[in-house]
Amino acid sequence: MITTPTPSMLRALPAEDRQRLLRTAHEVSFAQGTRLFEEGGRADRFWIIRTGTIELDMRVPGRRPAVIEILRHDELVGWSWLFAPHAWHLGAEATTPVRAYEFDATAVRLMCREDPALGSAVAQWVGDVLAHRLRSARTRLLDLYAPYGAGTTL
């Protein structure tokens, strides 16, 4: 299972930008087993985990959803909110009780449009997260479905 942390907002954004974003957030809690979103749903918010774990999963026809990555403290949950058509590419479920900061995607996109430096920093951070998630998804799917797994070459 891939569990390497994704790029953290704390490390990716300058302190002033972090504080501006955090001022727009509100605290939320999710019980274990809560589905945060489903593939194809409207991506109108995102979260930074404070405590707990969330699994990202992908629908696989004829099988249970494949767990792509496990997210923990200080990690971004959701990147689809930044890119049109603003639809989730994966699903997400709380595997433990979770406390998180929740952000309104429309408000953050507006802040980014009004402040190009903030927009660039957020785009770089989310892009780094996206690249990490794509690598994780590839590795996980190879582990699950390739004849010899991701680590073996012929």
Structure description:
- This protein is α+β, with helices and mostly antiparallel strands.
- It has one domain (9-144): Sandwich (Jelly Rolls).
- It contains four helices and eight strands, in the order ααββββββββαα.
- Strands 1-8-3-6 form a four-stranded antiparallel β-sheet.
- The mean pLDDT is 87.
SSE layout and pairings?
Blueprint: H1 9-12, H2 15-24, E1 26-30, E2 35-37, E3 45-51, E4 54-58, E5 66-71, E6 76-77, E7 91-94, E8 98-104, H3 105-114, H4 116-145
Antiparallel strand pairs: 1-8, 2-7, 3-6, 3-8, 4-5, 4-7
Helix pairs in contact: 3-4
According to CATH, the homologous superfamily is Jelly Rolls
Helical residues, percent: 25-40%
Number of strands: 8
Largest sheet: 4 strands, antiparallel
Count of discrete alpha- or pi-helical segments spanning 4 or more residues: 4
User: Which stretches are low in confidence, meaning pLDDT under 50 for 5 or more residues running?
Assistant: none
Shape: globular
Gyration radius, to the nearest Å? 16 Å
Lateral arrangement of strands in the main beta sheet: 1-8-3-6
CATH architectural grouping: Sandwich
Total tally of structural domains:
1
CATH class assignment:
Mainly Beta
Distance between the ends: 22 Å
Task: Give the mean pLDDT.
Answer: 87
Q: Which sequence of SSEs, written as H and E, runs from N to C? A: HHEEEEEEEEHH
Q: How large a portion of the residues is in β-strands, by DSSP E?
A: 25-35%
Q: Give me the secondary-structure category.
A: alpha+beta
CATH topology descriptor = Jelly Rolls
